[in-house]
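User: For my dataset I need records formatted as: sequence, then structure tokens, nothing else. Please produce one.
Assistant:
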Amino acid sequence: MKTQIILRISGCLLAILFASSSFAQINLITQSPVAITGANFKTSAKIQTEFDKLFTNAENVSWYEQDKKFLVKFTMNDQKHQAVLNKKGSLIYDISYGTEKNLPTDVRKQVKSIYFDYSITLAIKVEENNRTIWVVNMEDDKNLITVRVEDGEMEEVKNLSKAL
């Protein structure tokens, strides 16, 4: 008798679990996708002015509207950038993609002091909320390594062996 009650309760709980997970999947499927408008739409004068103040030498500028924010892709000083601004024109974040020559001297020295035999293949600068984070990709003959540097603190994020 106890076994039958436990089995019935367990069965009911499993049925509820499966039903709730299937409803969650349906909700995820039916949600509308993020709206991104093409690069040819017009931005407000205020947003354009704020962008021009922040990135005076920007070239090849493409604007995209995304969830009431504005994604801007552009090049500046031979680096690709992706920045997001809010509807008031304030910068939320900027990501710039560069090479070893774009790293500040102190960051480069810090990385090379540990990984002196590695070539720096990509240097990504993330600026957000008065923070500057460098993500540095490196490689040698056998490994691919990614480190993160912020405020003088370096952390190895990824270390992969190359297939030989």
